[in-house]
Design goal:
This protein has 12 helices and 10 strands. Helix 6 crosses helix 7 and helix 10 runs antiparallel to helix 11. The two termini are about 25 Å apart. The protein has 2 domains: about 200 residues, Alpha-Beta Complex (2-enoyl-CoA Hydratase, Chain A, domain 1); about 45 residues, Lyase 2-enoyl-coa Hydratase, Chain  A, domain 2 (Orthogonal Bundle), CATH 1.10.12. The strands form 2 sheets. Strands 1-2-3-5-7-10 form a 6-stranded mixed beta sheet, sandwiched between helices. It has a 4-stranded mixed beta sheet with strand order 4-6-8-9. The structure holds acetoacetyl-coenzyme A (CAA). Acetoacetyl-coenzyme A binds next to helix 2, strand 6 and helix 5. This is Probable enoyl-CoA hydratase, mitochondrial.
Length: about 260
């Protein structure tokens, strides 16, 4: 596998059709340095392009999903360096370049850019005692990888404003209750088991339909309702041009298991 090529992440295929990227900078609680993000983007592109992969899981360690952007790297940056090098902009590759569903399995700290990285994923599962937060205010700055926008859409303005102005953490249990995460589990082991199970289930469906489903749900975050519904209908209509729509509906009628062609 391509594992050996990476220094700050590990890539594996723990279940059929499931690619896993594990952030692996334990000494700094998976602080998200530019070299780490470069590796992450490369790994995600590779998994996205791999015909055998149907869903991707992004995780960290039991102690930290990621404790934020690398503060030591950021500390000396000037405005013009940040601006001219488009600092943090490449993080968005996650949301623009990856068509397969990206599931975040979050244990431990998911702070600042770590929280934002999780929010860029399509689905978050977490542990009850995980610690999410946007503590940038304590560093004299603000969220810079979409936190003020995605967290606000997820939890509403009142909670987001309080979290971002105070830097207070919120638990995985709260994340699940507030709709940031879809589910929370008691332990890291249970979290990984359930995340991989869900990823494997998704990977068992038609890739064409799965990618389209991910795309239309994510559009709901960007478009007004009428535009979103029209977009969905166009994509829905377009799937009548796929082979797997015929395969899936014929198999239902014949009480057979569909054999997806991913076309
Ligand atoms: N960047 C760089 N290094 C980090 C880091 C970060 N975001 N978070 C932790 N580390 C490093 C620590 O400096 C420490 O390194 P040393 O051993 O060399 O001193 C190591 O990881 C272990 O951390 P702690 O000793 O602090 O561990 P702890 O258990 O006492 O505390 C913590 C854990 C509460 C998560 C604490 O590390 C912390 O507050 N980290 C910073 C969290 C933060 O502010 N994140 C937001 C960053 S800004 C951002 O992300 C901008 C953006 O929007 C893109």
């Amino acid at each position: 596998s391509s594992d050996t090529a990476y220094k700050y992440i590990a890539v594996s295929e723990p279940r059929p059709g499931v690619g896993q990227v594990t952030l692996n900078r334990p000494k700094s609680l998976n602080a998200l340095s530019t070299p780490l993000i470069t590796e992450l983007n490369a790994a995600l592109r590779t998994l996205d392009a791999s015909p055998s992969i149907g869903a991707i899981v992004l995780t960290g360690s039991p102690k930290a999903f990621a404790a934020g952007a690398d503060i030591k790297e950021m500390a000396p940056l000037t405005f013009s360096e940040a601006y001219t090098t488009s600092f943090i902009e490449s993080w968005s590759d996650l949301t623009t370049a990856v068509k397969k569903p990206l599931l975040a399995a979050v244990s431990g700290y998911a702070l600042g850019g770590g929280c934002e990285l999780a929010l860029m994923c399509d689905l978050i599962y977490t542990t009850t005692d995980a610690q999410f937060g946007q503590p940038e205010i304590k560093l004299g700055t603000i969220p810079g990888a979409g936190g003020s926008q995605r967290l606000t859409r997820a939890v509403g303005k009142a909670r987001a404003m309080e979290l971002i102005l105070t830097g207070n953490f919120f638990s995985g249990e709260e994340a699940a209750r507030w709709g940031v995460a879809a589910r929370c589990y008691a332990t890291h082991e249970e979290l990984m088991e359930e995340t991989l199970k869900t990823a494997e289930k998704i990977a068992g469906y038609s890739k064409v339909a799965v990618m389209a489903a991910k795309e239309v749900v994510n559009k709901s975050q960007d478009l007004a309702l009428r535009d979103g519904v029209e977009f969905e209908r166009r994509v829905f209509h377009s799937l009548f041009g796929s082979n797997d729509q015929k395969v899936g509906m014929k198999a239902f009628a014949e009480k057979q298991k569909p054999e997806w062609t991913h076309s």
